[in-house]
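Quick one: structure tokens for this chain, please?
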Amino acid sequence: MLLFKSNLAKFVRQYEYIAQIIDLGDPELEALCGLARYLGKKLNGVSPDEIDLSGLKMTHYRLYEAGRLDNSLGVREVAPGLKPITGAGTREPRDKMRDFLTQIIEQLNQLFGEGIGDEDKIALAGQVSEKLRANETVMAQVKNNTKDMATQGELKNATVKAVLEARKAQREMVDRLLSGPDALAGFVGIMYDILREGASLQQGRDNSY
């Protein structure tokens, strides 16, 4: 599902960029973009267990011999209507997301240093990023701009606001973030990475990332 959400966001970004330059004149494609944008928002915060796959039908297949990959490309007794699988869908988004969350945690450790537990760091970053995810202006700028540009836009102001709201529960860390522009800039950059990747630190905590 993470890969599917990522592909939805990528399609929307590419379509909106191209549509600004060229009049595609394709109402169906424009409608598909609108559906992809809406579906991507609806899937935020939804766990894979909540997805109904009862209507899913297999359309592709891959042949293997026991113990080794079948490189013959020969087709034997194939069910009618099935097509050979392509490279699409063979990635492992779970491993990719695990690596990404590990990098985020390392960045948080470098930003806050010692004296603050990992759980508190992750809790603050998760709380702030989820607050930002609900801000449509922030998400539009994150999806359509480079990190350098987006971190100077609404993302910065919204991050400061969300950090101040979290100050009561995480006062020591918030004070460190607001102690100077470098610390705040580093945290804003981390928020961009989390939002751009579509990651949830709450999911990371649940799976012991």
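The longest strand covers residues 60-61.
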